[in-house]
Fold each of these.
Amino acid sequence: MIALIWGSAAIAGACLPPAPPWMPTDLDDVRAYADLLKHDAETYFTDAERYFRCQDLEHREVFEQARVASEDYARLLELLDDVRN
């Protein structure tokens, strides 16, 4: 039971959303930093895609863990029922 709690905590923190890039509104800043701004935006979108894939993977993993836990819990309830009868 404790292993499941620790495992869940580890999974929950695995996907970290990317920080959005800074986008200036001043035209002089846009011109001065155009290449950097493009790079930062492209990096952000790549990281956002990676974040969504990570969440999808975690969702599938937790769903499978919940399925197994449900089966284990059903067996536990059957054992308890057998002990009481």
Note: The first helix runs from residue 2 to 12.
Amino acid sequence: MPKILAIDDDRTVLRLIEKAFEDADVNLTTVSTAEEGLSILLEGDIDVCLLDIMLPEMNGLELAKKIRAIDARMPVIFITSMDDSDTAIEAMKLGAYEFCTKPLDITQVQDFVERAFNTRRLMRAPVTIQESSEISVGEGDQLVGKSPQMVEVYKQIGRVAAQMVPVLIRGESGTGKELIARAIYQHSQRNEECYLAVNCAALSETLLESELFGHEKGAFTGAERRHVGKFEQCNNGSIFLDEIGDMSPLLQSKVLRLLQEQKFERVGGTKTIETDARIISATNRDLEAMIQENEFRLDLYHRINAFEIHLPPLRERGEDIDLLIGFFIRRLSKQLGKNVEGISPDAMELLRGYQWPGNVRELQGVIRHALLMATGPVIVPENLRGELQRGSDSTAASVSFTPAASEKSDGVEDFVQARIDEGSSEIYAETLEMMERKLITKILSETSGNQSQAAEMLGITRGSLRNKIRSLGIVIEQVVSVD
């Protein structure tokens, strides 16, 4: 159970925090003095700290320094009045995670704490390598596989983790690029410092710029206070830029300058800020083709690609599929409270023959679905999704993670509900991918597969369309034949 420590000398604030988490599955401890808080931090395994910046016996900055000395990776969320935000900013430079202003907004506090829990998990949950057929299902995330391709990936992690150079991780969607990034971080010399991840494809250009570089109060509509960006928070730590190929040209130039000079300005600001954050980036796009189409900067490509790791797709990993199936059955059975011990030979044969356009993420979803459908101790073909039961002949142009019900409907609601029912933690990305695949398939059908016409109708370059066709697993011949 996640543990929260709240330190504030105002009992009203502490009662509001207690109310915010009274129905949450967390362990909350509240104290009114810095001395009590430090004692608990030294004794217990606290995940997130809510800290008043104006304590009577100790300044919040002093306490933040002590907390950082105890655990530099602990997210600290400051509680502050509106007129001392500059002090809170200084505290965030010491490694604080966020700050919320009085009077407290309960929803905002809950949101900050939830995100802080996830950040804490990313920094603490070990990413272990499992090459044996007897794979344990302990705590933390695991890189499962012993194929020659994955063994080479493990070697590359070992070669580059301790070197303070930018790393570019490449591979199809769902191959596990985020796990590789965390493994690099955990085996680096900065594994006691901050680690933050940003999905460059999930935010608009304005929001992503603010998320990375921060902004000053009044920099744009809705900027009601100064915001510290991830690069500033990750000073001396590591930042993971997922889907960097989706970054706009403006942000590409700002990231290039940061890599060259280790300096930047907040949005709407003039003060130059220095940072020493190690950048680990990932993409499933063809950056070389994007460079030819002037969609990605060649100089930035060389900067982020000091060392490249390529993750193979699941269909090329041979017997790793068997290892992953066994691993997911054991781990997910435990999580779902199901007494499933194995899989029948005919069901295993269907899984082995499938092409897995969604890679490891799709396999995990398929096994979760099968476990939910299973009524006995063994997974049988009837427990698998419709596309698995029909075979893999027509899967390349389909939405790999879409259940049969959503194949019969163009509605987004059915798809989202199906992902909710299966307990997905990637609903945003999966829904965007589903909608993008449907849109591009429809336009290609309308143009009889003519990519130049399709790109013009979509308002994107032909190179960008080509990258999307490849990454989404769309087969032109199948699109045209269906039409």
Note: The chain has a mean pLDDT of 83.
Amino acid sequence: MSTTGLILLAAFGVALLLFLVIRVKLQAFIALIVVSYIIGLLAGMSPAEVFEAVAAGMGGTVGEIAVIIGIGAMFGEILKVSGGAERLALTLMNKFGEKRVNWALVLTGFIISIPVFLDVAFVILVPILYSLAQKTGKSLLYYGIPLLAGLAVTHSFVPPTPGPIAVASLLGANIGWVILFGLIAGIPAAIIAGPIFGTYISKKIHVEVPKVMLENMVEEAKGKEYDKELPSFSMIAVLILLPLFLILLNTFGGVMLAEDSTLLTVLTFIGNPGVALTITALLTFYLLGTRRGYSKEEIQEIATKSLEPAGIIILITGAGGVFGQVLVETGIGDVLANSMNNLNMPIIVFAFLVASAVRIAQGSATVAMVTAASLITPVIDSLGIGGPMLALLVITIASGATIASHVNDSGFWMVNRFFGMSEKDTLKSWTVMETIIAFVGFGVSLIISMFI
């Protein structure tokens, strides 16, 4: 097939994918598989070659991420059930004081969203926002935007959350480098989109606590004996940071230690993302489960429940691997790489634009990440990109997939409902916050790319 034909075929595939997800409302997993079959056959692959590419793409991707996402989901669920999120928030607010409580909230969101899904963490912590707004009379956005910014940043940028893990797997990036770059890009993004923008927008839009939410939730939050019921702050902080620490030790241990060092061998093993999360999950089950009176059956139920949302993420990521493998087999990656060179477009800009376009078109950040990564993978192979640059591309794609959350995104309606805002005010607050995160993350990634 000609170069023009392959480019048109790639464009057709993306358009068809978006049509199936948006208009036909097919699950993204099925849509990615269907599009992969169609592109492979139209590009001239035989059915046997298509089936082989599908098996290779699914097996290679799922085999790497299933353990990480599955165990990470269990870890996050037991942390949620035990009250770890509330403990983290209350302790940090106490340490920062009333005048800087918005900074405590962005830090709370930044930390807790590492193991706990964004929407789950928000629902857990929103009663605290209601209580603060009621007490001070300030706009709910003054407290809500910092918390949401912290949650959104690590949800998109810092493994072991599913999004960056999925993209890292598809691109073959080192998780340790992804964590490092995610923190470097995420900290300024959270600060600017959180306390700084939150302070500004709360003066423009005064949001009262919705009465129906108050009746259902705030009294329950006020009535809890937090100090008696919740686990200690130090325990929660150690459990959340432990896997990040072990993974980073693995990544950078090779720089400091000899290749034949026994210590390096140990660090390589315990710092493997799957092993690091397994160690953390076992500690969490014991410290927050068994020691706090949960029976084996209750812990089993908690772990099983956590796998429900994890399962579909694993499947979508696997389907993204299939899509990327088919693109590689058809030669589209070489064509896109040549086109980028002719346009003199850096791959980091291309990755951001692709992720942004898919995000705006269909709404889901996870689907945007997986689709963009699938399109970028064959280009990476053609250009021979590797090392830390792959991790930087993960953050770039995550940034693009965060941009401009609007009415086709479930997160938009979650914030709209819990804050009781109009669609216009949600666009002015939540959507702008997400866009700030996207551009700050992309800007930091672009700057770092100049030095690696």
Note: DSSP finds 21 helices and no strands in the chain.
Amino acid sequence: MQLDDYQQLYKNNLLDDVIPFWLKHSGDNEFGGFFTCLDREGSVYDTDKFVWLQGRQVWCFSMLYNRVEKKQEWLDFAIQGAEFLKKYGRDAEGNWYFSLTREGLPLTQPFNIFSDCFAAMAFGQLYKATGNSEYGDIAVSTFHAILRRQENPKGPYNKAYPGTRPLKSFALPMILCNLVLEMESLLPPELVEQTIASGIHAVMDEFYRPDLGLILENIAPDGSFSDSFEGRLINPGHGLEAMWFIMDLAERSNDQQLIQKAVDRTLTILEYGWDNQYGGIFYFLDVKGTPPQQLEWDQKLWWVHIETIISLLKGYLHTGDERCWTWFEKVHAYTWAHFVDTEYGEWFGYLDRRGDVLLPLKGGKWKGCFHIPRGLYQCWKTLDAIAQKKANPLLQD
């Protein structure tokens, strides 16, 4: 395939396939919000609503309205989801629940800080689209609540016994690297810079093992290695996704050295996580090669592959490293051969190790309208930038 073929493929899959799928099937016209439990054809098989996925979908349609086209249909879809969240999504202290009934009654306590992260993203992006100050206030207050909770994200809902094996998780500092850019215009500049510096340090130094070239999912509070199931855990997809967050932060500050580090680590993590027997990227691995705790360790997941493609394309855009393009073509070929549903639209989420569809669902408790549309948008725009750079020698680094 030629560069322009890739450009059209990612753009068309986003605008002509994935977004229409969610517009057609996921809106709850009776109670508001979105259905995310959709089978292969888009029929609703469960009506529970998961707050982090509601937030992600509000963000997605707000982002498309802001960055692609001022389609009223997209904005209306985002607003009705946000109004459902505003009415039902939080407890009295402003913490965001994990799950709700279809009508909006809380099902699960606010133990999961990622509900808060994606609520902040959602209302921040929707504020940009509407100028509604209430949306902006919700985004900012939620962001500050996340920062207050970051040392103990689960709060009273943490089931670990205190003090025996305290661990820090990679997921939150990684998300903050992206969230802070999403909300930059709403936050004081000094808080933005502080959050960025802290996030880069965590992702590139604290959780990174230079001897392995890999990122650990969990470390001891002092940064040391924990020889336990959690401490040995490698999630290649998280590391690969985090690297394009870091590239975006490095581009913002014109830090070419940091970009190169992120590119090198992308390639190292990918080489480690790639399944040389069947293709695709493993979901979980144990850094010592012992059996992982997760029984789903060898599954191939949608989000891991699309996030990897973003990092490879951004790496190629910023450095021209041909290894990025070679790996892009390899991961792209696997991804489009196995995940894209050409018959009913959208993407499958879960494959077994051999690449066969494990669950034909298009959405559920963990998969919603987020990674695929965000990834397709990022790839489309990055491919456009690559094409412009190739066409205009003055844009070359």
Note: The two ends are 25 Å apart (CA to CA).
